[in-house]
Every structure is written in C-alpha cells, then in structure tokens.
Design goal:
Layout (H helix, E strand, L loop, with lengths): L31 E6 L4 E8 L4 E8 L1 H7 L4 H23 L8 E7 L3 H18 L3 E5 H7 L1 H4 L6 E6 L4 E8 L2 E7 L5 H11 L13 H9 L27 H11 L8 E6 L6 H13 L2 E4 L3 H4 L4 H13 L20 E2 L1 H6 L12
Parallel strand pairs: 1-4, 4-5, 6-9, 8-11, 9-10
Antiparallel strand pairs: 1-2, 2-3, 6-7, 7-8
Helix pairs in contact: 2-3, 4-11, 6-7
The structure holds 5'-O-[(R)-(carboxyoxy)(hydroxy)phosphoryl]adenosine and zinc ion.
The site of zinc ion has 6 residues, from helix 4.
Amino acid sequence: MLILNKTAGVFLKPSKGKSFNFHPGTLFLHKIVLGIETSCDDTAAAVVDETGNVLGEAIHSQTEVHLKTGGIVPAVAQQLHRDNIQRIVQEALSASRISPSDLSAIATTIKPGLALSLGVGLSFSLQLVGQLKKPFIPIHHMEAHALTIRLTNKVEFPFLVLLISGGHCLLALVQGVSDFLLLGKSLDIAPGDMLDKVARRLSLIKHPECSTMSGGKAIEHLAKQGNRFHFDIKPPLHRAKTNNEKGKRGRTHRAILFCKQRDLLPQNNAVLVASGGVASNFYVRRALEILTNATQCTLLCPPPRLCTDNGIMIAWNGIERLRAGLGILHDIEGIRYEPKCPLGVDISKEVGEAAIKVPQLKIEI
Ligand code: KG4
Ligand code: ZN
C-alpha cells in the first residue's frame, strides 16, 4: 500500500556539494518528472524539471551491507529496496515541495540490471502510476548514464560516450535521445567489477578510511596517498598487437578515429563523454583527457556523484524522452523489466573491420 502525502509534508534540506542547479521549492512552470532507480544496489529517486533543475532528491545506498558479504546478494538487495523505496520516493517528493499530482510523468529504470532489484522499482512505480494516473516512462539505465551530461553541460548530439560502471564497459555514439550506435564493449568484466574484486582481495573494507566506500572509490582514495613508482606495473593489454583489427589498445582512441573517418562526429571539437561509476575516478579522467587533447576532442564528465547511480539521471532521462516524445506510456499493460538489454544498434563488427591504425600515444599521468 502506498502512502503519499497529497502535498508533500516533510521539507528536507538539499544535500551539500551540488554543482548543478538544485532548487527545492522553486515555483515550477515546466514539465516535472519523478525518476526512480533500483537497478542494482542503490534505491534512489529524484524530481527534476524540464530546465534541469533538481527539485528534490533522495538516495539509500546498500554499499555497506554488500561490502560485508563480499558482493551483492540479489535477495538481500531486493529486500533492502523493498524496505526503503517508499521512504526514498517520499523524501524526494517532499524535498521538491511539489504535489505528486503536479508530476508530468514517472520514469523508472526497467533495464538492464539485477532482476530482483529492477522488479521492486517497477512494481512500486506501476502502483504509483495507477494511483496518480500519470504516464509511465521506462528507462534504460545505461542510456540514462549517457545523457546525464546534458543536464550539467550544453552538449548537442552527436557525441561519443564511454560508459564505465560496475556492470558495463561500453563505447557508443549518441545520435539522439534513444538513438545509440554501439561501437565496442569490454572483452570480459566491467572495470568497476574488477576494481571491486581487487579491493575485496586487498581487504580494503578493513581500512578505517575505506570501510564504507565502494571498491573503486577505496582504491582511488588510497592510491592518492601511495607511491606510484614502488611497483613497475605495465599498462593492461600492452603486449597485444596494435597493427591489425585485433589490436586491443587504444580502444577509445580507435572509436574517435572511426567516427571522424565516417563523419559521424565533427572533425573539430567532437565531444567524448565519460560516465558511470568508474568515470568518477580522476586518474581515469586524466588519462582520457590526454587522449582527447591529442585528437582535438573535448572530454566532459558529469560530477562524480552524478556518475554513480542516482535518481536524478533517471528523472532527467524522463525529461529528455518527454521533450522528444519518445517512449511515454499511457497504458502500462504488459510492461516487464529486462535484466539483460543491449545498448543501441551494435556496429562493433564494422569498427573492427575498418582496421583503423591507432597512432602510439604516451599516457603519462
Ligand atoms: O554506475 P554505478 O554506480 O553502478 C552500476 O551501474 O554498476 O558504478 C558502480 C561502480 C562500482 O564498481 C564502484 O567500485 C565504481 O563504480 N566506482 C569507482 C569510483 N566510485 C565508484 N571506480 C573508480 N573510482 C571511483 N572513484
Ligand atoms: Zn550505473
């Protein structure tokens, strides 16, 4: 049973450290979307308006619980989503000071992600949609990561995006709100997954400064204090051949060159966006910046707290879809979550067949 105050009663202070517009209680004249995210281990919700003002936000992270069990146990994640979703949605609405009846639509992540987690967000959202009689906008989690940058920066289509998170590593050309060309993806596991495994092996949870941090965040935090010359670590895949289509280095570099060669991106000032949890890492950003400088591109990344999972990116994707008139459902009959779901049209074979020679680039940070 959902209990939502007609006019949201509790007025929360906005959380600190936002570099984007956060205007709780602002007079709204625009379309407003409630976004709900439960695809993995964060229960998150936000209310965002058409101009990108974040009117309210709330998030409950399960990181601490999953760190103790050494990884996400889906049934535990599901229970925690169930325990928190009502409160989190209520907090986001209360902070926004809008009445739920003023929402233009409800947008929720339905793909890809953990089945049990996605299910909680979807069934909660569908009840709310029925109760408030609002349109429903199903959201693709990775598309939402990719378009977050358009909330914080003025970025036109097309742009290249590198999505690096706990579950994915994707390179795509973003041509429109739901028009993606997949250029390539990781050979094996996602970078966030790898960092989490390394952190676990090093028992970083036992480090007093890192006990509540995700693996990737803990590694970045400790690496800043370390001596980078202590071990001679070779860059990954450095022995792979680079002079044929099987070349394994400089994948992002190759994607930039491919897009320019095919006139899919402008020759000058093309934009590379990096997003997803691992893109909050400043070492990764610096490496990408060296690449974009060498290829006359501009690197743009959302602020770290918008790179990791959040409700704002889901609400914003709802706004993007509402503005473009794409995927707005007035009938929710038969809507299902999809744990596995590709991103866009896969042209990675074509990229490989183009056999583009990638020049050597020294990445020294
Ligand atoms: O996008 P995200 O919040 O969730 C998924 O969609 O997967 O990404 C979570 C991943 C985790 O693997 C976490 O270890 C990693 O992002 N991560 C980081 C940092 N903060 C989070 N990796 C490197 N550096 C960070 N600062
Ligand atoms: Zn994510």
